[in-house]
Model the fold of this input.
Amino acid sequence: MTQPDDVFRDPQRPVADRVADLLARLEPAEKLGLLHQHQAAVPRLGVGPFRTGTEALHGVAWLGPATVFPQAVGLATSWNTELLHAVGVAVGSEVRAFHAKDPAAVGLNVWAPVVNPLRDPRWGRNEEGYSEDPWLTGELAIAFGSGLAGDGSGPLRTAPTLKHFLAYNNETDRCTTSSSMPARVLREYELPAFEAPLRAGAAVAVMPSYNLVNGRPAHLSPLINDVLRGWSDQDVLVVSDAGAPANLFGLQEYCADGAIAYAAALRAGVDSFTQDDNDAGPSTRLLEEALERGLITQQDVDRAAARALTLRFRLGEFDPAGDSATEPDIVGCQAHRDLARQAARQSFVLLKNEDLLPLQTDVRRIAVLGPLADTLQEDWYSGTLPYQVTAVQALTERLGPDAVEYCEGADRVQIGTAGMSLEATADGVVGVARSSAGFDLFDWGGGVCTLRSVRTGRYLTVTDDGTLRADHPGPNSWVVNETFELILVEEGKCLLRHHTSGRYVTAHDDGRIDVTADEPFVFDFTRVADGAVLAAAAAARADVAVVVVGNHPLVNGRETEDRISLELPAGQERLVRAVQAGNARTVLVMSSSYPFSVGWADRDLPAVVWSAHGGQEYGHALADVLFGVVDPAGRLPQTWYRSEADLPDLLDYDIITSDATYQYFRGSPLYPFGHGLSYTTFAYGDLEVDSPAVAKDGLVHVTCTVTNTGLRPGHEVVQLYTHQQNSRIKQPLRRLRAVCHLDLAPGESAQAKLAVPVADLAIWDVTTDQYWIEPARHSILIGRSCTDIRLSAPIDVLGDPIPDRGLAAPLPAASFDEYSGVTLSDAGPSHGDAVRSEHPGAWLAFADTDFGNSLSACQVSVASGLSKPATIELRLDDPYHGPVLGSVEIHPTGHRHSWTQLTTSLVPGSGVHTLYVVFSEAGVFLRELTFS
Done:
């Protein structure tokens, strides 16, 4: 029975009161114990241990067999919030079940979903996100997160955490690169995906990212406290990414020492430090040192501890024990298996079809080919597959074993020296022998392959001491030691380099084989069997060939490794081309974590299908789609480009200036955002917009009629985009605003009903530092993808004109309209942005600047790390030929945060102009300009 003074154990009391009561009972050292991923128990108060960070991206990960759903980008391909919510419920329930078995080891704070917009398909973690569109990302995150969290009628089912705040789409030097984030890109593209689920209560925690943003580590971003926490009416717990606290004074060298770093992170809003695995000691000692040095106060500690406790109270940890809502055998239950199959079905996108699909049920013989035809892959954040249904298994189950011929399509090779060949011994160690069964070679792109021993059926791997073994199931760990670079140096000769270590496989005179040498060793190389030829022969014997290719989620495009090219691995492309030459009725099935550039396949093959890695029910779902049991429901959540040449630099986050993503891309994509074919056809008509004009606080209601004009039932995803026709600024070509799903029988019509809040049409105005709705005509665009627009109508939005930019207040340098050759930087360790010139002649443009008729001077706040003087010029209307208003000479200040104020007199001028600030040298920093 609850005692009168046990406020914190009384579930009838407000959470804030309960937190305050428990916090008051804790000693200072016990409070510090709450600020680590592994929170210490307080036995004297009956408070148990707690840990943050159970991985639950598309199933419960790292805890043993659990239901494995399609990868996150595959779930997003459904564009189906109801499905995402159901998957979230299932995953959250399985987390609860694991927690019930081992509460100390399995925490209820889950690190999902990932809401970084998929700006660039080369990002190594593409599979973890949902979409390149922030609105769609936010809607799907709300659905999945609310499923994880529960319906709000009681304690949270789990506590979802949004990853990774902020502007994080590169693995290349991810801990030391800075994402330059202009204000409009930040507010219109990056932040909305985080804002939506927090406002909806679908997430209760956030994890900052490894990178820097505008020169400041994301873990120290002022946006955490100043913006992010304002989106929720509940306390938001902020947990660091693993190892990121040490980066602040390590790799990033941003803080002078650990105590300063921890203090800065705590003040910036980080509440929980994920560092040194389960050893909280080093973090606690640095926080203690920060207190002793006066870098933080006890109030700072209490604030973070209160947030940590609030999450635990909301999870029901301190409520009286009741009946568990989670059945102990819910993990992998039949309902979740059925849901996994449904999710996998909806993850398939029909990219091209020339009347080959769906396959007829009377097909007599089918060849199922390729390296992914009879295997399923787990990614780093997958659960352990409880079972696997591959393409081969499912098609054999459907057609019978006599109707299916399988060929993996791998080359079989022998590698040796001096008349001897590499071969695995009985214990798995690789040595040399006079004869060898050889190795099957799998090409995963980027010059990287895996080699599977024919004798052992296991993959080559390298142990810590450099021993070469053939006893591994394949890449499946954080450090992948099963990948090699097979480099042909001349006909019949090769080098074999271990990809992870960079060392070469070497044969020694005594017969030993190891991987310890930095110098290359030349082996003899023989292709014993050509996998493409064998697959083509199998295809020729079949009525239809289905070739399944794609990526390995832990190789060439994964966490810590971006892709360089968008091409399908060369060996796989050769295989597909050979199969198509053997049988014109070839279906290309790609299973991958990301898009490929396969223009040749779109041109030459009759049918092309894609899905992300689909989890345990992948094979059943694929068979259902190929035979038309279900209509392909997937729509691309990101653009498929023809080449990486269509993309800006991987580190260029300014989608507006670089014309990136479907919103601004002016080229012709291979497959556009939103693309996905059906086995039937649809006609659109009767577009109605409820009013020709709408106020800025209004809601635009749109309806249209969609008719199934084909002979089969079909699923249509009606997409509504808008385009603002006139504006002060560069506008997106189109932007997704709403979606409607329709299931239609042949000949059936239905009305799609969509609504767009006018507030969603706001832009970020850099002159007033706020969202603004301009008076403008907008196009309502209805279609099947962002480029397949079937209907359009205008609507006038009755907004307010943006006034000219006044100069009465200081002009922040980061509030520019356009720029060339500058990046954004930090104006100070904790707050403020500045700009840095990257080359001589770099400039900033401030449009519509009202100079009035009485300005005579301008003071600039500048810094310079150069060893020589530099100048800044102020010009009107043209950065190189416009009249010069004034200029300042800047002498070295030593550090980018060592600001000095310099003043220049101004040539008399008046009226409204574009102000250009022009830098003479690279390495000059500008914080603001003050006119008088």
Summary: The longest strand covers residues 714-724. The radius of gyration is 30 Å.
